């Protein structure tokens, strides 16, 4: 037997109570694991690059930028390559089945962030065969059940065609995977030339330029230079990293991370109160035995460690089960929901388990530590 | 065996009082006692005479208000709580009336408890546990839990736990108070063996005159003072 075995055996003295405690901890950490995975992977923000810069209108994402700005941006010596994108939003079949299309130059896109999107020369070659070809992200393809060669029609919300219609017809030329599970692949890539030629309004404009800085150039400093360049123009710009851009985009609707953190934080505080309450009673029931251990020579610090070890054990098992279930759920859900259970999520969860385990054991442990032996023996 | 002449346990001018209902109730008002190494002393007396208080002070779980209390080379009256814990872990074993085994631990684990405080390997701890279980006649009972054992067997486990770390002093608080005569005699035979063969110094508080017969001498405590001493024939 070891000291840890003793803590473990103490924890299992009332198996039903311990199991219920572990279940409640497991549920809390399952929720935490899922929400943290959601935040981590939401809309590809986690997988988004800090180096890649997006240049949009300072007036908002809905304000287009003239294509002419591309050459001015490219002229900055810190810029390696400039791509551009026009975003279309629309639906397939029913209005709630919303999809997004990024209309870009496939070759430039390949150069700027082909690695992040998982683009290959074969895919770029495939989309180049015909003006209405598109590449579809793996997440979107799986969610819609689309396959290569299939024709799809997207009814645009805000980009009418020259012929007055809003239906855009495409043929799927390939499926891109994304660099990792955290990469947003819930959209399709169309050819800018086709979309620009066919749309009724705002021709020769883009929603954003995508800039890759040269090696050794600070993205932050380059972003500031680009914005300065257009500060007094008709279309002032706002340049952010791809990650900042996506996070800011999400915050347009609500600070999801803050809300989730508040909800999960409240759940953890409630859990802490419950476990402290149960542990105080559990240890109080054992006051006599605490006195016995002290009589055998267990010091106050060992008693403290024993009870903290017990609560840590309960949290470690319960939390471990919850996190394992969360991991399974993220694997089972696949990339469609954008859940990414990363090493960072795991490390943070382990830190929370440790803190909660110690915090919930602190009060009963201090009580037990301070109880005089004589007083403990009077409890039987 | 030969007892040392020099006192192993020495209590000089011990004073102890408890506050009960706002009033100080004196238990000892200058108690003196010396016990040589290797002695086996039974302490008898009516309830409230101070037997348990004496035992608690010898165990270092209670402190005198005044006076000197030394065991071996240690001055228990001057030690803080941490030092007394360490002293108990290395110098003293205690046997309780109601055995006080931990119900979630099996016999071997209960016996092993004091060894967790010593720098021993797992194998060394196991060997020591096996040895003392053999000594108390419970070899083969390692995996049994207290609830499956008779009172006599539980008390023998309690004795094994008290001696597993090889302390010089064994304190027994009514060790036969919860046992039938046959089991009580077995336990007392064991205590006598530990005293005679393993040279443990034993102080046993008891109400049972038959139990006291196993000791080398019996001290009668009344109203906080020793009133009579009998030596075994």
Q: What does it look like?
A:
Chain A: Keywords: Cell membrane, Membrane, Transmembrane, Transmembrane helix. Chain A: It is found in: Cell membrane. Chain A: Residues 21-228 form the MacB-like periplasmic core domain. Chain A: It comes from Mycoplana rhizolycopersici. The complex is a heterodimer of chains A (380) and B (233). With 380 residues, chain A is of the alpha+beta class. Chain A is built from 14 helices and eleven strands. Chain A has two domains: 3-44 and 255-377, no CATH class; 64-234, no CATH class. Helix content of chain A is 53%, strand content 17%. A six-stranded mixed beta barrel of chain A has the order 3-4-8-5-7-6, surrounded by four helices. Chain A has a two-stranded antiparallel sheet with strand order 2-9. In chain A, strand 3 and strand 4 form a beta hairpin. The radius of gyration of chain A is 29 Å and the shape is elongated. By secondary structure, chain B is an alpha/beta fold. Chain B has a single domain (38-63, 80-231), classed as 3-Layer(aba) Sandwich (Rossmann fold), CATH 3.40.50.300. Chain B is built from seven helices and ten strands. Chain B has a six-stranded mixed beta sheet. A four-stranded antiparallel beta sheet of chain B has the order 2-1-4-5, with helices on one face. The interface between A and B is medium-sized, with 24 and 29 residues.
């Amino acid at each position: 037997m070891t000291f840890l075995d003793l803590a473990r055996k103490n924890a299992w003295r009332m198996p039903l109570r311990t199991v219920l405690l572990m279940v409640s901890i497991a549920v809390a950490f399952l929720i935490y694991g899922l929400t943290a995975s959601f935040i981590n992977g939401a809309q590809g923000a986690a997988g988004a690059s800090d180096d890649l810069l997006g240049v949009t209108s300072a007036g908002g994402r809905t304000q287009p930028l003239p294509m002419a700005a591309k050459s001015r941006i490219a002229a900055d010596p810190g810029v390696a390559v400039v791509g551009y994108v026009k975003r279309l939003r629309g639906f397939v079949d029913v209005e709630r089945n919303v999809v997004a299309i990024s209309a870009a130059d496939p070759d430039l896109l390949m150069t700027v962030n082909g690695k992040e999107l998982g683009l290959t020369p074969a895919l770029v070659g495939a989309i180049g065969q015909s003006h209405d070809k598109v590449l579809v992200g793996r997440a979107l393809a799986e969610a819609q059940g689309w396959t290569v060669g299939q024709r799809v029609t997207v009814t645009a919300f805000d980009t009418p065609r020259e012929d007055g219609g809003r239906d855009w017809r495409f043929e799927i030329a390939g499926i891109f995977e994304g660099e990792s599970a955290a990469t947003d692949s819930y959209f399709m890539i169309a050819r800018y030339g086709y979309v620009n030629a066919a749309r009724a309004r705002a021709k020769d404009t883009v929603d954003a330029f995508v800039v890759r800085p040269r090696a050794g150039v600070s993205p932050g400093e380059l972003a500031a230079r680009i914005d300065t360049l257009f500060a007094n123009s008709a279309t002032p710009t706002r340049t952010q990293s791809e990650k900042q851009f996506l996070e800011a985009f999400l915050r347009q609707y609500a600070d999801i991370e803050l809300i989730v953190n508040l909800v999960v934080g409240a759940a953890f505080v409630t859990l802490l109160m419950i476990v402290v309450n149960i542990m105080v009673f559990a240890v109080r029931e054992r006051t006599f035995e605490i006195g016995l251990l002290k009589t055998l020579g267990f010091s106050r610090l060992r008693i403290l460690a024993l009870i903290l070890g017990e609560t840590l054990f309960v949290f470690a098992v319960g939390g471990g089960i919850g996190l394992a279930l969360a991991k399974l759920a993220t694997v089972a859900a696949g990339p469609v929901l954008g859940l990414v259970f990363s090493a960072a999520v795991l490390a943070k969860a382990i830190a929370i388990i440790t803190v909660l385990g110690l915090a919930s054991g602190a009060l009963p442990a201090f009580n037990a530590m301070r109880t005089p032996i004589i007083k403990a023996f009077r409890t039987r | 065996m030969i007892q040392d002449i020099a006192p192993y346990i020495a209590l000089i001018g011990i004073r102890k009082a408890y506050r009960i209902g706002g009033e100080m109730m004196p238990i000892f008002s200058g108690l003196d006692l010396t016990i040589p190494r290797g002695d086996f002393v039974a302490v008898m007396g009516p309830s409230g005479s101070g037997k348990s208080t004496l035992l608690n002070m010898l165990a270092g779980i209670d402190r005198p208000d005044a006076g000197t209390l030394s065991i071996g080379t240690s001055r228990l009256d001057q030690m803080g709580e941490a030092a007394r814990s360490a002293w108990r872990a290395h110098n003293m074993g205690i046997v309780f009336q109601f055995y006080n085994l931990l119900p979630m631990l099996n016999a071997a684990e209960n016996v092993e408890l004091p060894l967790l405080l010593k720098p021993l390997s797992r194998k060394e701890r196991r060997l020591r546990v096996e040895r003392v279980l053999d000594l108390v006649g419970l070899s083969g009972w390692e995996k049994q839990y207290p609830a499956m054992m008779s009172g006599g067997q539980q008390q023998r486990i309690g004795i094994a736990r008290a001696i597993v770390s090889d302390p010089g002093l064994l304190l027994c608080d009514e060790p036969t108070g919860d046992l039938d005569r046959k089991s009580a005699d077995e336990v007392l035979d064991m205590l006598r063996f530990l005293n005679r063969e393993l040279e443990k110094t034993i102080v046993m508080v008891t109400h049972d005159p038959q139990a006291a017969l196993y000791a080398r001498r019996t001290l009668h405590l009344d109203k906080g003072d020793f009133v009579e001493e009998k030596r075994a024939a």
